[in-house]
């Protein structure tokens, strides 16, 4: 009972070795309690759905492990339910080593890598081979973008999974990742080459900035939407970061266009349970004093930021949710950042919740893909498609103990306050994050 990955991976000999090396007590807690890390949450499902490759180990009848790399378009590994994944197998080099091994021993070990974000998901499971005449399962596993004939498919019952520490994962980038990062720089370069001045000249930012007590390094940058970039921040030594709860924010040192070193606040939008990194997502606001623009155009992977420890004025009222109170998350635009972390926390703890996320369009909004698998728990409204988030309807569905968490632009927050007051909602049932210092 307890952590399923530890239960399988920590054999008798390994436990003796851990005792000899002094690490057993640190892992002992994993043996206690209900089974866990055997059913995937949306975090694992979404992670797998975004991967374009993985490594797969099988064991031969002579006891030799065999590791194979499998690749395909992102999402070619299908998540069928919380403990079943699968993928279609197309004709390859016809050695059939993995397939042959699996006929004798159905155990499998998988590594899913996210190099830019330095994340690694390990899976242990048992495989069944789907024969070519099981058309129903094959159709579920077939990839829409790959039209070669499917020879068979692999169906994997997950027995355990675990996440790895990012310490020795070197960030690597695909062509698409690199293009998203260099396109804005290329445009700026083209302007300069033509002799034009970019509209706002920003001072060169040093490679180390800030004077806070928490050293962080940017380990990955992602273009999440048209004007939104996310930054993954890790401890330079790979050490665990101070624990946070959903709703937390961190102060980041920024150099403005006038050269002033100032601080900007950013909500931590990553899963709060992840202690190996924080992720922040920043909307570029060219009309401002230049903090967000500097982050977008000057901040690079490898830059070191001496930040302050995270703070939280927008935490979930966990005690109430543990007792069954429903959480209603309402996000507008970049306000999705703290709410995303709240969705992770609510999912992990089994709280009743629903998410309403209003944005202009798919291409201008971050993280919409994270919520598509949540079905009846997540609603996304794109104003450019004439979809409206109806505050009146949301508030009308509230019961006496429902708590609403809102993070959105000022106009939407104002509308929410007004509507809630008019409908007689208790002020304590609404908690706001206005992105105001
Ligand atoms: C707790 C907290 C969490 C936050 N989380 C996030 C997050 O996750 N993502 C994110 O992108 N941002 C977040 N913010 C906002 C962020 O801290 C910055 O304010 C934002 O990045 C803009 O910074 P800037 O320097 O580019 O612009 P700013 O100078 O801060 O300007 C921002 C906007 O305000 C207007 N403005 C500036 N000064 C004035 C003024 N004197 N009068 C009227 N209007 C003015 C500007 O025109 C501009 O449109 C958060 C803020 C807080 C307090």
TrEMBL record:
Keywords: 2Fe-2S, Flavoprotein, Iron, Iron-sulfur, Metal-binding
Keyword S-adenosyl-L-methionine on entry: no
Listed GO MF terms: 2 iron, 2 sulfur cluster binding; metal ion binding; oxidoreductase activity
Coiled coil stretches, renumbered: none
Keyword Transport set for record: no
Record-annotated FAD-binding FR-type domain positions: 211-317
Highest taxon above the source species: Bacteria
Native species: Paremcibacter congregatus
Pfam families with a match to the protein in the record: FAD_binding_6 (PF00970), PNPOx_N (PF01243)
Protein name according to UniProt: Pyridoxamine 5'-phosphate oxidase
Classification via InterPro entries: Cbr1-like_FAD-bd_dom, FAD-bd_FR_type, FNR_nucleotide-bd, MRET, Pyridox_Oxase_N, Riboflavin_synthase-like_b-brl, Split_barrel_FMN-bd
């Amino acid at each position: 009972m307890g952590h399923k990955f530890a239960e399988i991976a920590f054999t008798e000999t390994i436990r003796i070795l851990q005792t000899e090396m002094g690490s057993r007590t640190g892992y002992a807690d994993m043996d206690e309690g209900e089974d866990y890390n055997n059913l995937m949450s949306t975090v694992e499902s979404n992670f797998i759905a975004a991967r374009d490759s993985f490594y797969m180990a099988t064991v031969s009848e002579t006891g030799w492990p065999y590791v194979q790399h499998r690749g395909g378009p992102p999402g070619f590994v299908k998540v069928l339910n919380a403990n079943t994944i699968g993928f279609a197998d197309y004709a390859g080099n016809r050695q059939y080593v993995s397939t042959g091994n699996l006929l004798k021993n159905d155990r499998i070990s998988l590594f899913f890598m996210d190099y830019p974000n330095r994340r690694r998901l390990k899976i242990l499971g048992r495989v069944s081979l789907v024969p070519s005449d099981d058309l129903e399962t094959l159709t579920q596993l077939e990839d829409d973008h790959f039209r070669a004939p499917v020879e068979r498919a692999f169906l994997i019952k997950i027995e355990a999974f675990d996440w790895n520490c990012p310490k020795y994962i070197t960030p690597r980038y695909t062509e698409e990742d690199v293009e998203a990062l260099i396109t804005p720089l290329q445009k700026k370069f083209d302007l300069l080459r033509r002799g034009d001045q970019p509209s706002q000249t920003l001072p060169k930012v040093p490679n180390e900035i800030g004077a806070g007590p928490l050293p962080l390094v940017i380990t990955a940058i992602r273009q999440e939407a048209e004007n939104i970039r996310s930054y993954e921040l890790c401890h330079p030594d790979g050490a665990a970061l101070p624990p946070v709860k959903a709703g937390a924010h961190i102060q980041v040192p920024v150099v403005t266009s006038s050269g002033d070193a100032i601080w900007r606040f950013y909500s931590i939008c990553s899963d709060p349970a992840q202690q190996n990194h924080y992720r922040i997502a920043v909307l570029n606001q060219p009309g401002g004093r230049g903090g967000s623009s500097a982050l977008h155009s000057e901040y690079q992977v490898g830059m070191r930021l001496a930040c302050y420890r995270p703070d939280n004025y927008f935490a979930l009222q966990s005690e109430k949710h543990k007792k069954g109170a429903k959480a209603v998350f309402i996000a507008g635009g970049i306000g999705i950042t703290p709410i995303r972390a709240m969705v992770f926390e609510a999912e992990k703890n089994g709280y009743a919740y629903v998410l309403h996320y209003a944005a202009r369009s798919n291409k201008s909004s971050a993280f919409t893909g994270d919520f598509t698998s949540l079905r009846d728990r997540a609603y996304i409204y794109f104003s450019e498609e004439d979809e409206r988030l109806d505050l009146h309807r949301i508030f009308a569905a509230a019961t006496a103990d429902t708590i609403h968490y809102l993070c959105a632009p000022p106009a939407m927050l104002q509308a929410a306050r007004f509507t809630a007051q008019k409908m007689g909602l208790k002020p304590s049932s609404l908690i706001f994050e206005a992105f105001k210092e």
